[in-house]
Amino acid sequence: QVQLVESGGGLVQPGGSLRLSCAASGFTFSSYAMSWFRQAPGKERELVATITSAGTGTNYADSVKGRFTISRDNAKNTVYLQINTLTPEDTAVYYCRVSVTGKTYWGQGTQVTVSS
Questions:
Q1: Which residue, 20, 43, 50, is CA-closest to 112?
Q2: What would the pLDDT profile of 7-34 be if each residue is shown by its tens digit?
Q3: 66 Cβ neighbours under 8 A, 6+ residues apart
Q4: Interacting residues of 90 by C-beta distance below 8 A, sequence separation 6+
Q5: Tens-place pLDDT, residues 83-105
Q6: Who's near 105: CB < 8 A, 6+ residues apart?
């Protein structure tokens, strides 16, 4: 079965950086685009970044352009999200997502808290 397991979140000071990871299994990882979403307290889940199956194309939400970088390692079945210059507004649970044969799968999420 499809499984997505995020890691790498934590408490970081404003201006800091984190690298989130999402380890995937149960499907042919290199054949599918992957996405990162986030959900802040009291807000709807929002799309942060997407990467194509081969990793040759990326898209970002306007709010994170220039600060976030999505990448993937198809040999390791893992997608990453490098997040830099963090602000308190980036505090959220970060999720990875994949759609496989018409069904959408989510990981359990990893908490990112930005606070001094």
A1: 20
A2: 999 999 999 999 999 999 999 999 999 9
A3: none
A4: 38, 64, 83, 112, 114
A5: 999 999 999 999 999 999 999 99
A6: 2, 3, 4, 97, 98, 99
